[in-house]
Amino acid sequence: MIRKAEVQDISRIAEIIVFGKRVVYRAIFQNDVVSFCELQVIHSVEEYRRNPLLLENMLVYDDGILKGVINRKLQEDEIEVSEFYVEPFFKRKGIGGRLLQTVIAEARVANKRRIFLWVVKDNLSARKFYEKNGFRENGETRLIEGTSKTDICYELMLNEV
Predict the structure, then answer these.
(1) I want to staple 73 with a disulfide (CB 3.0 to 4.6 A). Which of 80, 105, 148, 159 is the partner?
(2) Which pTM does this prediction carry?
(3) How many CB atoms lie within 10 A of CB 155?
(4) pLDDT tens digits for 128-160?
């Protein structure tokens, strides 16, 4: 079941995001200090507890176990997906697709023009997933602060689908 995130979900959300980032980004950025010293579940939990509004637009996949999260920033005519992680143990089970399709369906109901997100250029599996779900590169890129890596903007134009 996909539902709105709640305060009691914070510790599990933090685990999913931290471990999701470690699994994907350690190989790309090759920075163990960030992956294992700076990126800590307890820090993420503390941030969500200090700023519960961070949960306001977050959805979770919960079938008795929280297995995935997707967060979005709602703007007047578009939605930015800002955090999207599936617990590494439960990847390739359709959870990410269900979360993303829920956001797409909500955007259509709300008459949004587009959904967009930023993905690390070297994260080929994520890029393939987004393309499979109708997203396309729009040509925008940005340098990831403090690194030599690039983010690519992907978008789904809702009036063209």
Answers:
(1) 80
(2) 0.90
(3) 20
(4) 999 999 999 999 999 998 889 999 999 999 976
